[in-house]
Amino acid sequence: MRDLIYRRLKVMVMMMVIVSWRCVLGLENINPIFFDEGLSHLFGESNLIRSPDDRSVRLLLDKYTGSGFISSSMYQHGFFSSLIKLPGANTAGLVVAFYTSNGDVFVKNHDELDIEFLGNVEGKPWRFQTNMYGNGSTSRGREERYRLWFDPSKEFHRYSILWNPTKIIFWVDDVPIREIKRKEEMNGDYPQKPMSLYATIWDASSWATSGGKFSVDYTFSPFVSEFKDIALDGCNVSESLTTLTRANYNNINCSASDQLLMTSDYSTISPKQAAAMRRFRERYMYYSYCYDTVRYAVPPPECVILTAEKDRFRDTGRLKFGGSHTKVHRARKRRRPNRSTPVVSAEL
């Protein structure tokens, strides 16, 4: 009897923590799925390990193979989210990716939305990038690169991608880190075709760390990335499609789902969250295509050029002052010894 009461109390406490966490983040409408409800093994044989409760999955990279999973369906717009924990120690050369794509179906004109985590040498922090491709626009990539305000290998954090007919928002926990508002001038560069969700870990030694200077050191393998509380919310179009062509995917009615995506809490950035996004980009973004005038003499139409933000970047889109926010912060700290660096949070 005592054990039964203890177990019930434990469950109640866990539920209270989960509800409190979701309310703090404003993500109470996220509904995680079981793996079998909407995901499938993509590659990696035994390097994909599902938990006994089917709520989480581990992706491993060893000297033989990486691994990955894919959503069982394609979605015409959606909200894609997961709690993710990255490998620790020496992660140079590897990439953990959480992204949407239709490259397997639309080989020459695919769409893609990326969150890619770039490993680093031991003692150096993980970095990550977001990207957007539309209609095969791989020559017109929209990369931004950042640091994080925490160690992503120590605990789980939620990473999310919203994609609806009018905007794209990338989230880290409760902080929107990037918003792309659709402009007519973008034409097909704005993703418009149904996409699947992917998660992968793989060897990207040729480019991931310092432009390929450091390769994966397999003496540290297996490298383990963990995904849990995965959420898929959008217009599931797979059952409505036999062959994906422009004619038939445009005829699918997703108006009800799109309306929900456009009015949900994760599609609206509050004033607090807008301030948090501005602080994040000031402190942790170290490359932006919008300020890369070497690649784009005229910024792409969705770019919002902020003078204060632009002044921090060279014409290559990289930071001035040696490209390190840490150096910039140290210099500021020396000049203003009484001013502390606040934590990036929507609560500030």
UniProtKB/TrEMBL annotation:
Q: Output one GO MF annotation.
A: hydrolase activity, hydrolyzing O-glycosyl compounds
Active site, UniProt feature:
112, 116
Chain intervals for the UniProt region annotation (Disordered): 320-348
Composition-biased stretches (Polar residues): 339-348
Where does the GH16 domain lie?
A: 17-227
Q: Where, per UniProt, does this protein localize?
A: Secreted, Cell wall; Secreted, Extracellular space, Apoplast
**Which EC numbers does the record give?**
2.4.1.207
GO terms for biological process? cell wall biogenesis; cell wall organization; xyloglucan metabolic process
InterPro entries to which the protein is assigned, alphabetical: Beta-glucanase-like, Beta-glucanase/XTH, ConA-like_dom_sf, XET_C, XTH
Q: Does the keyword Nucleotide-binding apply?
A: no
UniProt keywords (A-Z) are: Apoplast, Cell wall, Cell wall biogenesis/degradation, Disulfide bond, Glycosidase, Hydrolase, Secreted, Signal, Transferase
Q: Name one GO cellular component term.
A: apoplast
Bias kind Basic residues: ranges: 326-338
Reported modifications of this chain:
Contains at least one intrachain disulfide bond essential for its enzymatic activity.
User: Do you know which Pfam families this protein is assigned to?
Assistant: Glyco_hydro_16, XET_C
Its biological purpose is as follows: Catalyzes xyloglucan endohydrolysis (XEH) and/or endotransglycosylation (XET). Cleaves and religates xyloglucan polymers, an essential constituent of the primary cell wall, and thereby participates in cell wall construction of growing tissues.
**Family recorded in the similarity comment:** Belongs to the glycosyl hydrolase 16 family.
Can you name this protein?
Xyloglucan endotransglucosylase/hydrolase
Species assigned in the record: Brassica carinata (Ethiopian mustard)
